[in-house]
């Protein structure tokens, strides 16, 4: 049945009487009208009790839910053309859920090419969304950032944001507080990451240069926040090229070199190391480590140090760096130095806090994994040497961890076994370890879903290896294939016979 619907939820100032109703008429859903304005902002007037206020909030929440359902049924272009004023009034509403609904609908509209012009011509609406970034509620600010980022996906959208008074509004919002300024930086980095053209607009606006200036400034806490944002920018090729052209990568390298003489370096050094770690993965580990040797040396220093925070960052970074073949080769070139680091990681995997042990296990699983098409004699020998550098009895080390009643440690150890499962030297160690294969196919030792999934991944890696049948023998291979065929959650049926007269 077609309806024409008008939803009202407001309060008469004189009587305090709530009015909320559906008005019907024989028109299509596209003729729906709605009002979310409040004739009296909630909580301002003295009339009414706390119970009344609570009921009013519940009614507005219900209005939002219903309106959201109806608006989803409309085409974005229809909303843009027919409900401009309502959307704008929603941004002024004192209830955050109404603001979020209005901003979300703008986000839908800008994803529709036919409706873009309607939004771009409504600068007042865009201004209110920008002002929402500076609001007290983070949820509203995040939705505003998301919608503005969508607006900037096109050249015309970039022109509207950066070539009009909206840029002035954006800069005015930044002046509200440090927190709001970082929200705007987050938006700018998100826009800049889209394309070289987007980055050009953000650079010309002066916002990206301002961010980079704060990165190299004297304020330690600001430096920490800016480093995270610059790291996001560096994930794109055009972003890395711009940072290199501006000398920012060299400056970050120099900041790492000077960290030893800075008593406050503990605040920002982890972020700088993460920056180079991510840069190495998306670019070239060999080039990054050769051009910026201070990075890898600092990672090794942190791994050998006593600071738990620095140790965790170093372990994570080594795991990231060694997650691809080129990174493994870079680490291998350091020779005995990296083997010493591995011994430290093996020690912490056994003796440190649960969180640190899990981080060590995750890093080791990344370091040891080799795709089968990379199983050259040199790389297999490298992996075997690394494995034996961890401890005198590395198989016993990981079996001990896997047997502990902590799911995160149990699964972490299984991940390490899975990483080496397709390598023939590891398969020999497994078959020589008493009861290992029986442990692998024993379903009773994995009580939860994550453990069952981790065990199944190990069995799958072993059964899928080209060398496992020859290395472990056909009976063990058949056991693995049977486990694989039954799936991760198989439960063997147990038959029982009832005997008459038995108690």
TrEMBL record:
Chaperone is among the record's keywords: yes
**Gene Ontology BP annotations:** proteasome assembly
Q: Which keywords accompany this UniProt record? A: Acetylation, Chaperone
Per its UniProt entry, which superkingdom is the organism in? Eukaryota
Gene3D superfamilies reported in the protein's UniProt record: Leucine-rich Repeat Variant
**Keyword Chaperone among record annotations:** yes
Record's signal peptide: none
Protein family according to the UniProt entry: Belongs to the proteasome subunit S5B/HSM3 family.
Q: What function does this protein fulfil?
A: Acts as a chaperone during the assembly of the 26S proteasome, specifically of the base subcomplex of the PA700/19S regulatory complex (RC). In the initial step of the base subcomplex assembly is part of an intermediate PSMD5:PSMC2:PSMC1:PSMD2 module which probably assembles with a PSMD10:PSMC4:PSMC5:PAAF1 module followed by dissociation of PSMD5.
Please name the PANTHER family in this protein's record. Answer: 26S PROTEASOME NON-ATPASE REGULATORY SUBUNIT 5 (PTHR13554:SF10), 26S PROTEASOME NON-ATPASE REGULATORY SUBUNIT 5-RELATED (PTHR13554)
Self-association state and partner proteins as the record states: Interacts with PSMC1, PSMC2, PSMD1 and PSMD6. Part of transient complex containing PSMD5, PSMC2, PSMC1 and PSMD2 formed during the assembly of the 26S proteasome.
Protein name as annotated: 26S proteasome non-ATPase regulatory subunit 5
């Amino acid at each position: 049945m077609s309806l024409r619907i008008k939803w009202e939820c407001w309060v008469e100032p004189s009587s305090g009487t709530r009015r909320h109703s559906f008005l019907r008429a024989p028109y299509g859903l596209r003729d729906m009208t709605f009002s979310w304005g409040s004739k009296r902002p909630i909580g301002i007037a003295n009339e009414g009790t706390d119970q009344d206020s609570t009921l009013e909030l519940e009614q507005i929440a219900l209005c939002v839910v219903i309106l959201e359902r109806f608006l989803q049924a409309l085409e974005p272009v229809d909303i843009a053309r027919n409900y401009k004023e309502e959307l704008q009034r929603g941004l002024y509403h004192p209830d955050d859920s109404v603001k979020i609904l209005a901003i979300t609908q703008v986000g839908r509209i800008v994803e529709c090419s036919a409706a873009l012009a309607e939004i771009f011509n409504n600068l007042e609406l865009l201004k209110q969304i920008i002002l929402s970034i500076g609001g007290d509620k983070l949820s509203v600010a995040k939705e505003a950032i998301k919608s503005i980022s969508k607006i900037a996906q096109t050249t015309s959208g970039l022109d509207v944001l950066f070539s009009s008074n909206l840029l002035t509004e954006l800069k005015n919002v930044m002046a509200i507080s440090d927190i709001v300024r970082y929200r705007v930086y987050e938006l700018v980095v998100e826009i800049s990451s889209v394309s070289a053209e987007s980055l050009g607009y953000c650079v010309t606006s002066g916002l990206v240069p301002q961010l980079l200036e704060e990165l190299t400034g004297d304020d330690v806490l600001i430096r920490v926040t800016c480093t995270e944002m610059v790291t996001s920018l560096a994930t794109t090729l055009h972003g890395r090229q711009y940072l290199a052209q501006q000398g920012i990568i060299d400056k970050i390298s120099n900041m790492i070199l000077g960290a030893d003489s800075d008593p406050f370096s503990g605040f920002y050094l982890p972020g700088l190391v993460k920056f180079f770690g991510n840069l190495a993965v998306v670019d070239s580990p060999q080039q990054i480590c050769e051009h910026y040797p201070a990075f890898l040396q600092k990672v090794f220093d942190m791994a050998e140090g006593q600071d738990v925070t620095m140790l965790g960052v170093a372990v994570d970074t080594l795991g990231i760096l060694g997650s691809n073949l080129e990174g493994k080769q870079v680490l291998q070139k350091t020779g005995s130095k990296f083997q010493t680091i591995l011994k430290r990681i093996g020690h912490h995997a056994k003796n440190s806090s649960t969180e640190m042990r899990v981080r060590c296990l995750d890093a080791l699983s990344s370091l040891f994994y080799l795709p089968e098409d990379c199983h050259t004699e040199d790389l297999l020998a490298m992996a075997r040497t690394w494995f034996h550098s961890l401890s005198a009895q590395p198989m016993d080390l990981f079996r001990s961890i896997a047997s502990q009643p902590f799911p995160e440690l149990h699964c972490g150890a299984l991940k390490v076994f899975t990483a080496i499962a397709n390598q023939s030297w590891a398969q020999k160690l497994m078959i020589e370890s008493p009861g290992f294969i029986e442990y692998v196919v024993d379903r009773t030792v994995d009580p939860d879903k994550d453990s069952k999934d981790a065990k199944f991944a190990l069995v799958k890696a072993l059964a899928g290896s080209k060398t496992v049948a020859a290395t472990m023998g056909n009976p063990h291979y058949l056991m693995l294939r049977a486990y694989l065929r039954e799936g991760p959650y198989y439960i063997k049926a147990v038959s029982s016979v009832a005997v008459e007269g038995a108690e």
